[in-house]
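Dataset card, provenance and construction

Sequences and ligand SMILES were collected as paired inputs. For each pair, a complete structure of the chain with the small molecule in place was predicted and serialized as structure tokens. The example below shows a pair involving 2-acetamido-2-deoxy-beta-D-glucopyranose. Curators did not alter the output after generation; any descriptive sentences attached to a record were derived from the structure itself.
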Amino acid sequence: MASKKKSVLFICLGNICRSPIAEAVFRHQVKEAGLEDKWYIDSAAIGTWHVGGRADSRAIKCLKTKGIETDHIVRQITKEDYTKFDIIFGMDDENIGDLKEMAPKNSTAQLKLLGEYDPEHIRIIEDPYYPGNYEDFVTVLEQCIRCCKAFLNSEL
Ligand SMILES: *[C@@H]1O[C@H](CO)[C@@H](O)[C@H](O)[C@H]1NC(C)=O
């Protein structure tokens, strides 16, 4: 019997920019570390705006520059996620506030800011959707690479 997988859910407002980038980056790092069978990884939205759609084309484009792909389909967080996942990462304080508000009574997941793991101590991963400069997506990607790496190392 395989031991229980660790599980992590990345959250942002719409699940088309920050959280699918974080999910794809972490999945890639876990794969490179040969730990695919040890982790269950997903991402989801606070809101319903983009449910059923794909990540923002700018997110897909910047991931590609690192050789990372995503085929994530946008979904909204569910009550079950709060017991299914060990850790739920938000990207900013607003996400954490929303996550707390939406949490069911039986929630067991730890709610954390992904930026808490940033070795460069940038706590907040800002939403790059507006004004939507490609550079902002690159910044998000770099934050996610740093934070996910540090998180993975902390779990080894
Ligand atoms: C926790 O509560 C929610 C409803 O608030 C329910 O949908 C879910 O199945 C419960 N999970 C467990 C593991 O009991």
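Derived descriptions for this record:
The chain has one domain: 6-155.
The first helix runs from residue 18 to 32.
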